[in-house]
Amino acid sequence: MAKRKPKGKDAIDQLLDNFDLHGMTQDEIVGPNGLAKQLTSRLYERALQAEMDEHLGYEKNSNAGDHSGNSRNGYTGKTVIDGENNEYELEVPRDRNSTFEPIIIPKREKRLPLFNDQILSMYAFGMSCRDIQSHLKQVYGVDVSPELITRVTDSVMEDVKDWQSRPLEKSYPILYLDALRINCRQDGKTLNKALYVALAVNYEGKKEVLGLWLAENEGAKFWMGVLNELKNRGVDDILIACMDGLTGFPDAVKAVYPNTRIQLCIIHMVRNSTKFVSYKDLKEVCADLKKIYSAATEDAGRLALEDFGEKWKAKYPVIFKSWDTHWSDLIEFFKYPPEIRKAIYTTNAIESLNFQLRKVTRNKSTFPTDDAIFKVMYLALRNASKKWTMPIQNWGMALNQFAIVFGERVPLN
Fold first, then answer.
1. Is 351 a residue whose pLDDT tops 70?
2. In whole angstroms, what is the distance from residue 127 CA to residue 133 CA?
3. Which range is least confidently modeled, 56-65, 210-219, 275-284?
4. Which DSSP string do the residues of 250-287 spell out, in sequence order?
5. In the predicted model, what is the mean pLDDT of residues 9-25?
6. Which of 52, 153, 227, 311 is 20 to 30 A from 44 via CA?
7. What pLDDT is stored for residue 1 in this prediction?
8. In angstroms, rounded to a whole number, what is the distance separating the alpha carbons of residues 406 and 404?
9. Rg of the chain's alpha carbons, rounded to an integer?
10. Bridge partners for 171 per DSSP
11. What's residue 218's pLDDT?
12. 405 vs 28, more confident
């Protein structure tokens, strides 16, 4: 039998040489107040001290800190909990300027970050508190109460509030506006509320959700309030606003941003038009509608609409009337080449986002509170936005076109 090669002592072995473990009981080593727990607490405290050294730029008691403008200012007691529900009493160092933001155990965190991330990740995918509790018990053998999970997820509300009130860019070339329906409990009743979503494309061509809002009904008046909030957060100009055909919607946009051009979603128009069509005529009607929005120019599109009216107005008068009434808000996309039109004449970008948001609500027939909706939707948006690393297709060409059409309204830098 081969002899075991002697193992050189590492730093941990050298540390343990300082402890006399002879005669110590199991409880004294790994019990609730045992040596292992005390070592873990001290390890975290040393890590926090190292972070403070890095933050201040000098070690404790070093003369390098004289007249530096900031210094240590005692400690704050804090209790944190790990994935096995072990509690650790820590002393977190403070600085006089209150600018120290520890990374290993962030401020206001009660659970060690890895465990929090696991809970928030499951919550972001629509799992209920009970589902998360069951999963943690089955996979990790950890018995966590729904109340504790709620406290962990409640910590997200601080991020939601900061995100919802953050300053925005002064101008956006494209803004998509849409709403989806979500069930929520209020005053002991289940209400079907509208979750308003504002999705912008910035001047780098990348998507950015500007905010989320809740109301009992979708209406142009509420949208005007949303737009006023965006203005108060720094958005002075929007080149093109893309939306569905909600009555009064374009007027609400114009009331806040009078220079913004409107593009009603062509796909919504087609979808609403086909509600009135019998199945045997559906294919032919859709083909004739396509001639309108696929025309090369606005004049050609208008001519195709007139042809559609002559052919179908007697049988489906509502369709022609709807397109004719909304024509001035349907034609903005004709000003751009075909590659850019797809980014303007449809709200597919925001509908795709809404589809991802709806996926996380499938396991929740009803949300208990408005805050619960905001928490889940914010986390879902955070996951979705990780994929938005590239500008939309043909963005360079679009930006050149915008600069020609809108002139000085397009920022050069």
1. yes
2. 10
3. 56-65
4. HHHHHHH-TTPEEEE-HHHHHHHHGGGS-HHHHHHHHH
5. 67
6. 153
7. 46
8. 6
9. 30
10. 237
11. 75
12. 405
Number of H helices, E strands in the chain: 17, 7
Q: Find residue 199's DSSP bridge partners.
A: 176, 209
Instruction: Please report which helix (H) or strand (E) contains residue 327, including its range.
Output: none
pLDDT at 378 over 60: yes
Q: How far apart are CA 85 and CA 89, in angstroms?
A: 13
Contacts of 22 (CB under 8 A, 6+ apart): none
Strand partners, 185: 190
The whole-model pTM stands at 0.66
Distance in angstroms (rounded) separating the CA atoms of residues 288 and 220? 31
The DSSP symbol for 85 reads -
C-alpha 78/C-alpha 70 separation (Å) is 23
Residue 334, Ramachandran bin (φ over 0: left; ψ between -120 and 50: alpha; else beta): alpha
What is the per-residue DSSP string for 87-136?
EEEEEEEEETTS----SSS-TT--B-HHHHHHHHHHHHTT--HHHHHHHH
Q: Residue 235: is its pLDDT beyond 90?
A: yes
Start-to-end C-alpha separation, the chain:
73
Q: How many Å apart are CA 155 and CA 150, to the nearest integer?
A: 9
Tell me the C-alpha distance between 146 and 139, whole Å: 16
Average pLDDT over residues 287-303: 93
SS3 36: helix
Asked whether residue 6 carries a pLDDT value surpassing 70, the answer given is no
Tokens of 309: 């009216």
Is 203 within 8 Å of 412 (Cβ atoms)? no
Q: What does the alpha-carbon distance between residue 116 and residue 112 come to, in Å, rounded to a whole number? A: 6
The length of the chain, given as a count of residues: 413
Distances from the Cα of 16 to the Cα of 9, 33, 196, angstroms: 10, 18, 59
- What DSSP designation does 44 have? H
> Are the CB atoms for 320 and 313 separated by under 8 Å?
yes
